[in-house]
Write a structure and sequence with these properties.
four-stranded antiparallel sheet, seven-stranded mixed sheet, mainly beta, 126 residues, globular
């Protein structure tokens, strides 16, 4: 069964850290761009960070640049998102998704991503 499963979400105080993990089963991530997206209540889904399968190119949304770091471990078939200095504005459901690398490197949920996880809630609040 092909699926992506996110983990690591939770409740954290402002300034705190969380590490999200995206694990793939039923397929290998080697041939996919992997993206982390988020959707807050009443807002559209947005691209947070993406990483290519080939040269490790990355993209970060302006709002998270310098605070979040994306990394992939092809041997473990996982992609992680380290989130530091979290702010209340980071509160959202976070999703990981996989896009065939041959389709091009884009970090925009309006483009086709082949597989999506079910999401994990991140809440930043005091």
């Amino acid at each position: 069964q092909v699926q992506l499963v996110e983990s690591g979400g939770g409740l954290v105080q402002p300034g705190g850290s969380l590490r999200l993990s995206c694990a793939a089963s039923g397929f290998t991530l080697d041939y996919y761009t992997i993206g982390w997206f988020r959707q807050a209540p009443g807002k559209e889904r947005e691209g947070v960070s993406c990483i290519s399968n080939s040269d490790g190119s990355t993209y970060y949304a302006h709002s998270v640049k310098g605070r979040f770091t994306i990394s992939r471990d092809n041997a473990k078939n996982t992609v992680d998102l380290q989130m530091n200095s979290l702010e209340p504005e980071d509160t959202a459901v976070y999703y990981c998704a996989a896009r065939e690398a041959s389709s091009g490197f884009v970090c925009d949920p309006s483009y086709e991503y082949n597989y999506w996880g079910q999401g994990t809630q991140v809440t930043v609040s005091s």
